Structure formats: structure tokens, C-alpha cells
Known about the structure:
Layout: H1 2-20, H2 23-33, H3 38-72, H4 80-105, H5 114-141
Helix pairs in contact: 1-3, 2-3, 2-5, 3-4, 4-5
Amino acid sequence: MWYLYGTIVFVHVVSAVLSIGPLFLLMPIIKRLRNVESPIEDAYLSIIRVVIRIVMHAGHVLVVSGALLLLTGPWSWFTSWIVATFAVLLLSGFFLSTGFTKVLKKFHLPGSNKNEILAKLNQTSWIYIGLMLVMLWLMVQKPILW
């Protein structure tokens, strides 16, 4: 049974890396997107959408593997660090679904300010990375919060 638990831990760690790591690719892409022409702009936006999709699906694997670890592991669902992780998870899920998608949809709207949208996209990326790092800290450190 321990080999199964170890496999789930491995899947959980890889999905955690995939739910954070690709977001760091967005920073140079956003920076380059400020000074490009329209055809190249669409290519960069496609890359951003792919990165967000990878992060989103890795997050799904992260949640499922985390639930499996809770079901087979020694912790209760009401342990303080687990409850805090769920709270950050819900916040980051909401943030990912609304923050990136709404910002990207505004990009080609008439009268939209491209630099303002890119600044918002950059800010959204850093906030999401921060949320994921808090969640990673909770999962690794397992602090007793209450």
C-alpha cells in the first residue's frame, strides 16, 4: 500500500510544480507583448492561453491527488493546515477562472488600453503565484494554525 501512497505523492508534487512553474513563463511573454504587431500579438496570446490551460489542468490533478492523499493518509480533513489549504485553493481557483480569462477577453475589445491590460495580466500572474506558494508552504510545512 505504501508504493501506492508514494506514487500519489509523486503525482501530487509534479502537479504542484506544473501548476506554478509555467506561470513564470508569462512574465517575459507579457513584457514582449507590449511592443509587437497584431499577428505576433495573437501568437503570444495563444501561448498565454496554453500556459493557463496547463496550469488549470495541473491544478485539477493537484486537487484529486491531494484528496486521495487525505483519504489514504494519516491526516483528518479538519486539520488546520488542510482547512487553510482548501481556503487558499478555493481562492486561487476563483482567481484563476476570473482573473486571467476576463483580462484576456478584454484584449481585443475596441477602445481597450493594451498596456493597462498587460499590467493587469502581470499583476494577476504574480498574485496567483503568491497564492500557490502559500498553498505550497501549507502542504510542505503543515503548520498547526489553531
